[in-house]
Amino acid sequence: MSKVGREGSLRGQKKQDRREKIRQAAWNLFREEGYEKTTTRAVAERAGIATGTLFLYARDKQDLLFLVMHDRLEEAVEDAFDGLPRRGPLLERWMHVFRRLFRMYSEYPALGAAFVRLLPGASGPNAERVNALTFAFLHRLAALVREAQEQGEVAPEVLPMQAASNVFSLYFGALLAWLSGMLPLELALEEHLRPALVLQIRGLRIG
Amino acid sequence: MSKVGREGSLRGQKKQDRREKIRQAAWNLFREEGYEKTTTRAVAERAGIATGTLFLYARDKQDLLFLVMHDRLEEAVEDAFDGLPRRGPLLERWMHVFRRLFRMYSEYPALGAAFVRLLPGASGPNAERVNALTFAFLHRLAALVREAQEQGEVAPEVLPMQAASNVFSLYFGALLAWLSGMLPLELALEEHLRPALVLQIRGLRIG
DNA sequence: GCAAAAATATGAACCCGCTCATTTATGGGG
DNA sequence: CCCCATAAATGAGCGGGTTCATATTTTTGC
Questions:
Q1: 8 Å CB contact between B103 and B193
Q2: By residue range, what is the domain housing residue B86?
Q3: Tell me, what's the pLDDT at A1?
Q4: Which of A17, A28, A137, B201 has the lowest CB atom count within 10 Å?
Q5: pLDDT of residue B168
Q6: Number of H helices and number of E strands within chain A?
Q7: Among candidate residues B39, B57, B75, the one where a domain is terminated
Q8: Hey, is the C-beta of B123 within 8 angstroms of any chain A C-beta?
Q9: Same-domain pairing of B66 and B77
């Protein structure tokens, strides 16, 4: 057999298995005990490896959280865009997507809060993967704007990526407000995020 | 002499002195070594107190950073609104304010980055003081919107606080992008924040 | 097959944030 | 002026994240 990059080799396979073991162990402990209370030693033990080995798979404890959250985030984003109505007002399509993401965070709000608080400026291999996901998400938001432009709903001179960037900031702000202040999910979505998006669409100008 | 609440008493005076000593020590060390590398022991030593005493004045190391940043932030906000042109386009008045804040962070960008990253959902006595500052800032932004409404520049049906909240999210997003990615100050302000604000004012609608 | 080399894994030890049982300072009442 | 109650300060110790010298496993070259 020829060398098959990383994944195919025996070494690569064991490495993948171990990463998965660690992901599971961390996920279970974070859910059961919360992020702060979970010790890296406990994660290592449940994954059946030595303490030091953990740090060959995640740069630090934060990066472990990113390892765990990456898959959940990816699934939620995929799901959100899969179930997206083909047509309809831009506002409702955005809300459909953001609702799905909020719902994901609401399953374990404390974990979500820890994750979102660490997101800005995070580094480490798994943080990079999450950043890539976020970047792709931003482009998907821009695609929605482009489609709305084709429907004549959005002015043609608006740069889709610029609009996506603004909307993402509004989404992130709402997410922080919700997960920090712990106002209930529905209120955060309908009374905070939705009016913010409405105002971004409307603008401040007269008319 | 009657008891004068907290400030007048000898006890209260010593406490204030000590808080100031700690603030100075932390500020100098954070500047010289950075937030992460500075140990709480070092701060205590330079302030001339025991390790444990530090935590009577700040709940934890994070709260120490908030203690340090509060005054700088307050000064920058005060300064920004003092120097604000009495009239002029809303966009330029916003940019005047945000430029002043960005400039404050740019004096010690690494410290600013640490601070901004810890801001969301921070707790502790000094974090509360910073949150109060942020809340007041939000209201000042809303006041600018209200003035623009009186000038007929902004539609009367727009809720000033809603607009302020959106603009704050855009500001915070730009701040995070700048301090995380370390793109230069001028670009972050003029190529990131300004277009975002322009688009918020303009909206996405046709016309 | 077998060494030498390279990649991985190990866990004791280190560092540092934070706590808490104990000591010290302050101020009011007699 | 002294005593007691209360507030404040102390620093040794603890817990947990992270490191790194050493050991083990896997791959490579022959």
A1: no
A2: 59-202
A3: 34
A4: A17
A5: 98
A6: 10, 0
A7: B57
A8: no
A9: yes
> Other CB atoms closer than 10 Å to residue A181's CB: what's the count?
10
CB < 8 Å from A in window 144-173 of B: 145, 148, 152, 154-155, 158, 162-163, 165-166, 168-170, 172-173
Q: Which of A12, A20, A23, A7 is CA-nearest to residue A66?
A: A23
**Per-residue pLDDT reduced to its tens digit, A18-72:** 999 999 999 999 999 999 999 999 999 999 999 999 999 999 999 999 999 999 9
The predicted structure's pLDDT at residue A136 = 98
Residue A159 belongs to a domain? yes
| Residues B87 and B166 grouped into a single domain | yes
Angle between helix A194-202 and B160-181 (nearest 10): 90
- Our count of domains for chain B comes to 2
d(CA B57, CA B129): 13
Q: Does residue B14 or residue A166 have the better pLDDT?
A: A166
Residue A170 lies in a domain: yes
In a domain, B3, yes or no: yes
- Exposure on the CB side of residue B182, measured as CA atoms within 13 A: 7
